[in-house]
Design brief:
Chain A is an alpha+beta fold. Chain A has two helices and four strands. The longest helix of chain B has 26 residues. Classes of the chains: A alpha+beta, B alpha+beta. Chain A: It holds the Pfam family Fer4_7.
Chain lengths: ~80, ~575
């Protein structure tokens, strides 16, 4: 069966200007209980790769530069 | 190599005590085991990262079951929990918890975890339960995980993050021998041989589907997919009272607690659309949930948590706790909806179903030393059967598990592991990665959990259950024959959905076995609407016997703290009488 991709607006947003993942920081990726954040090969910045969020906040709370914002997922906002 | 790319590999390590799950019970179990024998190797395996894993990822807003001298006694607490569970309690484990938990509070305090104290420096315990006073707020509860992590590092516990355990291994004599696990970012497999294993893998919280339709918007940390329940089942351990589901009153859509335990002691209460109270007591019990459910459907719903009558300063204090600790996005959620607690009540709803002895009584059967029915295998926290044990129970029972497991490890050598068993498990785990074409795990999971909602959530109807089990069996076949995982992250989800499916089957099987109604909404069977103490005043134990799911009765052990006849139904009288 062929697969299609499914569009979702993701709850975790990273401010590229503040994110220092390109300098080796992986804090938000490390702490996420659902393991949904990744570092982009293209930009070197963190981003939400999988829309599987418990809106729990460690990524935002532990980010050393305040680059991460957790929003409430749209379906339950 | 890119993250999530699949690596087909297998390695093997060994340790004395293996603790699986680094949330609440797990770190305490690991610490206690290591303190008992500092020379031993203790490995703490975690699917996520111990720094921020488990139900208390962002901390906890209070202890719900603190038995503190001067406020409550172990006898009183044991009585309260026995009554709240309709009498189906092995009191020995509850009593031991109640006697020991104050020592654990003091230990947590020494770790730097702060609890609310009054002006005299005494713990400021609040009353939420029907009888006794056990709720201790933690206005600085966001520090819990960091404080635990510091202790783990200091004790030199070996931490392996991002490894998901998939199956337990036993030796031919039936003793525990270790576990198989898989790296969630590379799919490399790791076999861990151990003399004793402690399961601290949390609730089965991804069983029902939240009404928002967002699969990860569960009450429990969505990482808690019931892997511990499934692993214990496949290892032949008995699971107790799984039909006593967890169902909680939560902020509608947000699906987190409001939380009556935080706000109740300040004067907040649960009300209907006429702003009237309809329940006597906000403590989460099956009987309370049944009244809540009835009110929602009666035309007097929605149900609200009412705060607007409180003083501004009081509301500020409640907001401070609700919006900073445990689920800090509660504030963001209410802000997005324009809800100000001073003007508007909080709309509440009931959660999806799950297994969790932290709040109900559905867990892997354990005795008062946290031993399961498999020699050398222990369980603690939300997944072990000590009822209503909450965070402090996870710490306290985790501590019992750590101590006893190390003693077991000190007196036993490694069990022999059958290489064929490992090969079979490797084949099972990797199967979704070997298919070119098929169904992705998210679709299998959505369908499974939608069926759980449609057929298994109470009220439990036999005919619906039979249909539900047939539908689930069809999805299971798809899961086993056609599910695909295209990277290591999808493989993690593919393994989780297998745990979810096992839990769905166990929920159905256990519910059909108990032919009566008990625990209010948790086990309300329309075909057997009455409580039947003559035939069903017992535990039920579910286990895998000769490859088949089997249920049996287990007698309630003699009480340590006697309950008078006129006390037995205190929790049945939840509804406020009309025109009171």
């Amino acid at each position: 069966m062929p697969l299609a991709t499914y569009q979702t607006s993701v709850p975790v947003v990273v401010d590229d200007a503040k994110c220092i993942a390109d300098k080796g920081c992986t804090v938000c990726v490390d702490v996420c209980p659902l393991d949904v954040l990744r570092i982009s090969d293209m930009t070197g910045k963190a981003f939400m790769a999988y829309d599987e969020c418990w809106y729990c906040m460690p990524c935002e709370a532990d980010c050393p530069t305040g680059a991460v914002t957790v929003n409430i997922p749209y379906l339950l906002r | 190599m890119a993250m999530d790319e699949i690596v087909d590999g297998l390695s093997e390590v060994s340790c004395d005590v293996l603790v699986i799950g680094g949330g609440t019970a797990g770190p305490m179990a690991a610490l206690k085991a290591k303190m008992k024998n500092p020379k031993a190797n203790v490995v703490l395996l975690e699917k996520a990262n111990v720094k921020r894993s488990g139900a208390i990822s962002m901390g906890m807003d209070g202890l719900n079951n603190a038995v503190i001298p001067g406020y409550a006694t172990p006898e009183q607490y044991t009585k309260e929990i026995t009554i709240a569970n309709d009498g189906i309690v092995d009191q020995k484990a509850v009593y031991k918890y109640a006697q020991s938990c104050y020592g654990i509070i003091e230990e947590l305090d020494s770790f730097g975890i702060r609890f609310l104290k009054n002006e005299n420096g005494d713990y400021a315990v609040k009353k939420v339960h029907h009888i006794g006073t056990y709720v201790l707020p933690m206005p600085n509860g966001e520090t819990v995980k960091k404080a635990l992590y510091r202790q783990l590092r200091r004790a030199r516990i070996l931490i392996s993050n991002r490894y998901m355990a998939t199956r337990l291994l036993k030796s031919s004599d039936g003793r525990i021998a270790g576990a198989v696990s898989v790296n969630t970012r590379t799919a490399e497999m790791l076999v861990i041989k151990a003399k004793a294993v402690i399961l601290c893998m949390g609730a089965a919280g991804r069983l029902g589907l939240p009404t928002s339709g967002y699969m990860f918007g569960t009450y429990e940390n969505a990482a808690n997919s019931g892997d511990g329940y499934a692993m214990a089942y496949h290892a032949g351990a008995a699971l107790a009272n799984l039909e006593c589901f967890q169902i909680n009153p939560l902020i509608k859509d947000y699906n987190g607690p409001a939380c009556a335990y935080v706000a109740g002691p300040f004067g907040a209460y649960t009300a209907n659309n006429e702003d009237r109270r309809f329940i006597e007591c906000d403590y989460w019990s099956g009987q309370m949930m049944l009244e809540f459910y009835n009110e929602l459907l009666s035309g007097k719903g929605p149900v609200f948590l009412q705060l607007k009558h409180l003083h501004d300063k009081t509301i500020e204090e409640i907001e401070h706790t609700l919006h900073k600790v445990e689920r800090p996005t509660r504030g963001l959620f209410q802000e997005g909806r324009g809800v100000d607690y001073r003007k508007e009540s909080i709309e509440m709803h009931i959660s999806e179903i799950g297994f969790c002895s932290g709040h109900s009584a559905s867990g892997v059967f354990v005795d008062d030393n946290a031993r399961t029915t498999v020699p050398g295998l222990y369980a603690a926290g939300d997944m072990a059967s000590v009822p209503h044990n909450y965070m402090l129970g996870a710490f306290t029972n985790g501590s019992f598990a750590g101590l006893d497991a190390m003693e077991f490890a000190d007196n036993h050598d490694f069990g022999a592991i059958d290489a064929g068993e490992i090969a079979l498990e490797r084949e099972r785990v990797m199967a979704p990665t070997k298919r070119e074409d098929g169904i992705p795990p998210n679709q299998i999971e959505y369908k499974t959990r939608r069926l759980v909602n449609d057929y298994l959530q109470p009220p439990k109807v036999t005919r619906k259950y039979e249909l539900g089990m047939r539908r689930l069996a069809e999805v299971r076949e798809d899961m086993q024959e056609r599910m695909i995982a295209r990277n290591a992250h999808e493989l993690l989800r593919a393994l989780e959905v297998q745990s979810i499916m096992d839990c769905a089957d166990m929920a159905a099987h256990a519910s059909l076995f108990r032919e009566e109604s008990r625990w209010g909404l948790y086990h309300w069977r329309t075909d057997f609407p009455e409580k039947d103490n003559e035939n069903w005043f017992c535990h039920t134990l579910l286990s895998k016997q000769d490859g088949r799911m089997t249920s049996e009765k287990r007698a309630v052990q003699p009480y340590v703290v006697p309950i008078a006849d006129d006390e037995k139904d205190l929790y049945d009288k939840q509804r406020i009488r009309a025109s009171a």
